[in-house]
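Replying to the earlier thread about multi-chain prediction with a worked example.

Input:
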Amino acid sequence: MTASAMVAEFDDGAGWTADAVEQLGERHAIPAACRGSANPAALAWLAEACELSPGTRLLDVGAGAGGPAAWAAKRFGVRPVLLEPMPGACRAAARLFGLPVVRATGERIPLRAESVDAAWCLGVLCTVRDKAALLREIHRVLAPGAPLGLLVVVARSPRVFPSPDGNRFPTQRELARLLAGAGFDLTEQIARPDGTPLSWSRRAEQVAAVVATRHRHDRAFALADRQRASFTRLFATGQVSTQLVHAVKRAPGQAPHGGNMSTTTGDDGYEVELEIEIRAELDMAESSRPDEAVPASEWLFDPTDVQREIVELRNLLGAVEELEDRSPGRGAREDA
Ligand SMILES: C[S@@+](CC[C@H](N)C(=O)[O-])C[C@H]1O[C@@H](n2cnc3c(N)ncnc32)[C@H](O)[C@@H]1O
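Result:
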């Protein structure tokens, strides 16, 4: 991301949010400070998938103004540690929630190896150039077998348009490879659930309205607004979707769950991983709506191609499910 757009969105924006929350009241803090598009249903899914519980030491990498970590502390009793490179966001998180914040990037985490019980990284991966380095660092500081919860904006194809400043969205295949390469087993993945309650979205909107009233003439506000508009268009045209991922740190020396994805057949783990990939691609294809928001003439791909792709993915999914049913490992488990 260019420095100015990055600073506008994540640094200035975080400070303005904290100011507005102070005016409107503390109950606005968590919804307004969830800046990676997490809603209560998404946070609950991640918390349950990662089996968070009172006392869990949760590292939130790219924590922003701290909304998700504060939610996890309030609802699940975790002990969060926030890691965030933007000074304005660090100050906002400390002001709003009084949580411990480390100012650093995810590529160089100043914590000891195996020192945290769980990690979250929400809405961050697409803003980071060296995604592999960030995931390797998270892997290093997690305890063996510990969970990682991700919220990731995933692209249907490597090129998207318009391309928000500095963002590089991984494709589904790339994400699966990055996780495996960093030493994680991808356990489960779903499209981010919708259905944010009005009580939550209204509080976030009220904060955004105060920020707009105070700062609409600032250059940083215009930059951040342009960034938001690019994202809205990418989602409306189905080029990207928000995915939730639960992965687990593989123990040293342990073979990747599912083995070599490009050559293995008839391996139960491989089929499960392939099924996760196909389901995610199917979700993305099905969430592409040519009839909504954008005229067909502005689509980057022919909407009938999307229908064709959905049919092919469904067929592929059916074949993989059948393979899973027939796999000797699966049969043995069911017989037991
Ligand atoms: C979309 S915001 C999400 C913030 C927060 N996770 C949330 O969900 O509210 C992305 C955050 O990633 C941070 N970030 C950018 N580059 C980073 C890096 N290399 N390491 C860690 N965080 C980074 C940004 O400063 C920003 O706060």
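The longest helix spans residues 303-326.

Feel free to reuse this layout for your own posts.
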